[in-house]
Design goal:
mainly alpha, signal, coiled coil, S2_sf_CoV, DUF2959, elongated, about 0% strand, DUF2959 domain-containing protein
Amino acid sequence: MKRHISIAILATSLLLTGCQSAYYGAMEKVGYHKRDIMVDRVEDARESQQEAQKQFSSALEEMQALLNHDGGDLETAYNKAKDEYESSQKAADDVSNRIEKVEDVADALFDEWQTEIGEISKASLRRSSESKLRETQGSYKQLVRTMKRAESKMAPVLTAMKDNMLYLKHNLNAQAIGAMKGEFSSLQTDISGLIQEMNKSIAESNKFIAAMEGN
């Protein structure tokens, strides 16, 4: 669960004014540990992928509307599709940024965990903590693999969208639109594949969050 709004405000302030290590240290002083931050960042990454799914689907719909354009203002239809492409690019950037934040806190968490294991004097407790660390690292690696796989699907889709938008910008007429319909079929397939990969990543995020909150 997300903490109180005051913690969110503190987090924003710290991120704007200092390095990550100082941020983590200050957050820990108010009872908000790296583990909590990691769960929140995985939730944020999941939400950004859900938003990206919606945005790419919306862009696909607007491009389809443009290609099926029959009468009315062609320029208006083109601008709508272009706006959706640009919003898709922003959504993709947000996904990438959120994944980077997950990776950053994971590195800090695992480094701290490994260091603190060395401070445990009782062997049985030390072994138990080492086992839990390996288990969590394994789950995390699987999570990041699925996130990265979904992320990698975005660039080709965005490139295809950009190509289509630029081509139509220079050739905005019925003949050019007709010529793009073959390209659109491939784009539909690519976006469908992207959404499937994001669904897998979202499911893996849910699994990871449940495991972290259950421990």
